[in-house]
Design a protein that fits this description.
Amidase signature (AS) enzymes, Amidase (chains A, B), catalytic activity (chains A, B), 445 residues, eleven-stranded mixed β-sheet, disordered C terminus, AS_sf (chains A, B), homodimer, 2 domains
Chain lengths: 445, 445
């Protein structure tokens, strides 16, 4: 069965069809390239793309029948991960045309699994806050979120079924939520970061943007050598903590409605929903994440600062200067504070399959200069827990709003099973409109 | 005061003299280059060296009077850390002539502190176990240890006062002990690793090889933005745990004598010495470290494996194949086991200024093909604690044997103060011969 629009297929379905000989890699890659050709002028998701080289990879896959779990399937790579055959420019003029001898670990492992590296996706400058040209494919006047802007936009626009992102604050989950797709950040330090340009190494986590939980699970298995089956079954009656977090005042009505709708859907499908409050001390996590981020940016960009200061954005320069002014003592105390919170959370989450929490403040803001607030994602990034966003509903402007599920460190597969349950059993699919949500968002405190 | 042999000066003394205008950077760097010219044919510590470029850096320092804490002082860089002006070859033919656009974070921060980057020091292949050509300067028939072989040999041979190393198993402390100098590995993830080729990212730690504790403290302050004074004062009556570890059977008589001698010297100077036994479960740390090392090597070298397998050493290939065969489940369980041990150790070390433990099995072995056993260093590497080795005595072959001091995570400065106390107050200087040691090593169990 050849599908009419192979670029709309999921990663898992593409892999199944190619493996079965029902779809060729060349057809699939050509369909993605056609979609890009039709839409890239508007969306601007790609930092570098070499269609002929992508097609050559696809032909090689078709010529070699046996293959890995992603044989012949195209993927996108955020432009902070080294690729031997494409430039790695990191959204910075300093690295214009930069070539590396080797692939990053994640890229090499995707290739070893048979994937076609379709191209590099646009990143904010050094995976930070200064955006590239990418637009939200659902509304070109709005940001796609960042810093994995191109990965979010390309996957949402059916240009590629899955793209790698990285999250230091909220750079995987926020663009996924803003673009109406699925974004997943695994437990810290479980996907190898060799060949990643660090933003802040105590935070940076490689993750996936895709269009289904199943696709995220498949990607995770490839990059973590796990043998688990997709595990869409999930718990029969999950126990879920409803965690509004200490940032709840930032939640716009859309986010409040999304959380209520997701909790109501889960409860209706049999989940036990329990209010879950973070300890008061956790309110320091947002500032702690900023401290770590600023110190580590100052250090990881020390060469760029010394040699190319004029080519660094004003916002990044501000972060670097803040980081330079923070003492080693404060930095180390902050790292220890984060460790303490991680341990405490491990204990608090005992007995819960997941927490459900806001993913973003609300819908994607209008304008391209601001890629959105990382607060609701960043606190979980610092806690090193696995986190996923799935679309929950459409806000008052018709834009998607996701909810976030998190689990204990290393419980990545269990989290994906719970997320799969929420989508498949509880029916959360992001198509409901806000006005139609199960219950309205609460009034701000 | 111009010294006759500036290359023999410590890092701190060099920096003081240059800052005071009593020694020029060009005199200092020229003396180091002269020493290298005289000895390099025998020692082979350097992977790349550009004497004219080093002198140009020195002249620039002399021309610019004001400077950072390392103004005009030469340092060596292990050849797994990126340098914009010298190749980064990683001890592998795959990376012959490899150039990077930028400096690694540690190198850029050293430069920002005024240091002259003298050259790149020889590393075992990818900071692993396949040695380069470096010889032990104290006995050319013996290994200098590895994988920071060139850093250990160059510092011991007075070619440079300090060199960066990296430790994944025992790659900083072992060469330091084998070459009779000081080696320090800080708390994991406190020196920025941007621009380091990862061996195993959950273990890799950038450290220093120098000829005094003061020099290590100075280097640490530069790379961690700490403002502390050198802190040679140390505790008046330190409480030290004597930790033979579960590996004690591996300790040769020289190591037993070194530990006893150091403990006796500390006790004689007023320290409280308490036998300290690790919990039985910690005996799994050695295998756990190997599991993590193998899995992460397989991943970080995935590109090299796919594209240049024939250029990978047999020993590295074996590690990669072992790593590929380990499931993600086992890997994650191993990471969690290590986390558990770290937490337990934090509690057990409460009330101790440091533990004293074996640094190495014994003297540097004869021959260059085997860089020594990482077990005594590796267990502490996996525990992420700061660790330092200082020379304790001379073994039966006249070669140096160090002891190791470790402290709680983030207690790096306190550890250095205790180590300084052991050297300066307790008088441990490594000059005592084994036969003359305070008490003989115990008979193996």
């Amino acid at each position: 069965m050849a599908t009419e629009t192979p670029n709309e297929l999921s990663l898992a379905e593409s892999a199944r069809l190619v493996a079965a000989g029902e779809l060729s890699s060349t057809e699939l890659v050509a369909a993605c390239l056609d979609r890009i050709a039709a839409r890239e002028e508007d969306v601007q998701a790609w930092a570098s793309l070499d269609p002929e080289h992508a097609m050559a990879q696809a032909r090689a896959c078709d010529a070699a029948r046996a293959g890995g779990p992603l044989h012949g399937v195209p993927v996108g790579i955020k432009d902070v991960l080294d690729t031997a055959d494409l430039p790695t420019e990191m959204g910075s003029p300093i690295y214009k045309g930069n070539r590396t001898l080797s692939d990053s670990s994640a890229v090499a492992m995707l290739r070893a699994a048979g994937a076609v590296i379709l191209g590099k996706t646009v990143t904010c400058e050094f995976a930070g806050v200064a955006p590239g040209p990418t637009r939200n494919p659902l509304d070109l006047a709005r940001t796609p979120g960042g810093s994995s802007s191109g990965s979010g936009a390309a996957v949402a626009d059916r240009m590629v079924p899955m793209a790698l992102g990285t999250q230091t604050g909220g750079s995987v989950l926020r663009p996924a939520s803003f673009c109406g797709v699925v974004g997943f950040k695994p437990t810290y330090n479980t996907i190898n970061r060799a060949g990643l340009k660090f933003a802040a190494e105590n935070l940076d986590t490689i993750g996936f943007i895709a269009r289904s939980v199943e696709d995220v699970a498949l990607s995770l298995r490839v990059l973590t050598q796990r043998a688990d089956p997709p595990g869409s079954a999930g718990p029969a009656r999950p126990r879920i903590g409803l965690c509004r977090t200490y940032l709840w005042e930032k939640a716009e009505p859309e986010t409040r409605a999304a959380l209520d709708h997701a909790a109501a859907a889960a409860a209706a499908a049999g989940a036990e929903i329990v209010e879950f409050e973070l300890p008061a001390s956790f309110a320091g996590l947002t500032e702690a994440r900023e401290t770590i981020n600023n110190v580590e940016r100052a250090r990881s960009l020390a060469w760029e600062w010394a040699n190319h200061r004029a080519a660094i954005s004003v916002r990044m320069a501000r972060s670097i200067e803040l980081g330079q002014a923070i003492s080693g003592e404060t930095y180390h105390a902050t790292l220890q504070f984060a460790d303490t919170c991680r341990l405490a959370l491990d204990g608090l989450m005992e007995g819960f399959d997941a927490l459900i929490a806001p993913a973003v403040n609300g819908e994607a803001p209008v304008g391209l200069a601001y890629a959105g607030d990382p607060s609701f994602q960043g606190l979980w990034t610092l806690l090193h827990v696995p986190a996923i966003t799935v679309p929950a509903l459409r806000g008052s402007n018709g834009m998607p709003v996701g909810v976030q599920l998190v689990a204990r460190r290393y419980a990545d597969e269990a989290l994906l099973r719970t997320a799969g349950w929420l989508v498949e059993v509880a029916g959360l699919d992001g198509r409901k409109a806000m006005a139609d949500a199960a219950s309205p968002g609460r009034v701000p405190a």
